[in-house]
Amino acid sequence: MTGQTESQLVDPAPLVPTQSGPAADADGHGQAETTTAAGSLLAGRYRLGVRVGSDAAAGAEFWRAEDTVLRRDVAATVLRRFGPGTDPDDDGGAARAQEIIARALRSGSFEHPGCARLLDVLAPGAPGLPDGVLGAAVAEWVPGLSLAEAVADGMLKPLATARALQPLAAAAEAAHRHGHVLGCDHPQRLRLNHDGRLQLGFALPRPELTPADDVRGLGAALYALLTAHWPLSPSDAARAGLRPAGRGSDGTPLAPSAVRPGVPVELETLVVGTLGMDSDAGRVRTAAAVRNVVDEVVAEADRVILFPPEHDGAPPEPGDVWQPRSAVAKPADPRRRRKLAIGLAGLGLCVLAAAGYMSVQLGELFGDPTPRIVVGSSAAGASGGGGAAAPAQADGADGAPVGDVAVKAVGADVYDDAGDRDNAGKVSRVIDGNPSTGWKTFSYRQQFPALKPGVGIMTSFASPVQLSSLIIESPSPGTEIEIRSAPSSDATLADTVLLTRTTLDDGDTTVPLTNSQPVQYVLLWITHLGGGGSDNSTEIREVSFRRVAD
């Protein structure tokens, strides 16, 4: 999906300094004085780049920043001092910031895949903080989309929203079990990563939040993905670039099905239960209950995948199993058509050779019995040691032996010891038979192994096969790849076995795998990226395999 860029998601109404005290937003929260700008340096290390949002109630700004020491993107949450007030005892939010930072320090050891990992906390008074900044927290940057970007081109399919919420709900459940609160009730704190999973991207929630606020935040995130509306604070919705949800006569947000017909009843019940009144009988009160429901929705969908799904209000994705009858047929793949022509030509030659052999045999059986010497036959060279040598095997148009057989991989996944999993949601394109689509690594400012040893694609087959070669189609010449066999899809790099190395050309690169043993998992481990300078990346459009003919 494409949508607004992050630079377009900077607060539509930036916070401004006040003369008589903190201003109030639409929810009555005090606003903070603007003191930070792109290029500001925190603690002499973190350079602010693009402001992607703010939480006015916490006096916090959300920035995409750069760690100038490790040369990587990070997510910085900056606490700002409130504007000067009329109350002489007003400390500009310093005490509140101290409480927020103290809570962050207590939760510093908590880690979960549903949250960006906390890397650094800058307490009030720490050296290197700009004037007016009361503290900050630095977390891993979550590459992907904001909530507004995720729904900019249309609402997500209900099953995709359930899958997206799974890691965030699991993170909230784990945090509450350890006595922590995530603060996932603000839309700009959440990001949808490249795997299509929601993660908490920015730290430092408001100190008054409770686990019940996280439960409401989970329901609000699900509501936003289903309807493209934010059901909690209207001012937060405006800052995030989302439309505020409509409300019924009792003040509660309209049910998702009133905005989007076709929402499954399980997800509708979950959303209504998380956002309803505390006195409601169907109130959902724990993150564990939210996680259980979305897990059941996903598991049930996986169980009934063999049956056509009910219409859910969104068109099918190109990769969905079930497509409407009116769907446009996929254009023919020219490479596949060429291979089919080569195969048919080879079959025709085999038929002609067999017919010629049979005619010779029949002629000898019914014709003149007088022995004949065939010029150039093995009989003329019998003294040379007993029989003619086998003819050399010809190569096909794609560089692979004609006698070999194409074999299709059934799975492909990003293999990354560092945990970044570059663009993992698109890696299946390398085995889809369509060279017009592909997978690309992130762009790295430094060549491997400066930031990490490499990144790879783990391919798998339905059963072990003895490969004769593979063909890699790529527009990234100079990329260096190790071809390795693996005992399993999650094997460590040390457990894999190096088969060969290759350097990619621009276009097709054929990699022979002579004398290789049968293998079910093959790792393409990229040790040197294409490109150069501060833009190092590799794109792979298609990987095809050939096995030894039986």
Summarize the structure.
With 550 residues, the protein is α+β, with helices and mostly antiparallel strands. It has helices at residues 94-106, 147-150, 158-177, 211-227, 234-240, 256-259, 265-275, 287-303, 334-366, and strands spanning 41-42, 46-55, 60-67, 72-80, 118-122, 133-140, 144-146, 190-193, 198-200, 229-230, 243-244, 405-407, 411-415, 439-440, 455-465, 467-474, 480-486, 497-503, 507-512, 519-528, 531-532, 535-536, 539-540, 542-547. The protein folds into three domains: 6-142, 2-Layer Sandwich (Phosphorylase Kinase, domain 1); 145-303, Transferase(Phosphotransferase), domain 1, CATH 1.10.510; 405-547, Jelly Rolls (Sandwich), CATH 2.60.120.
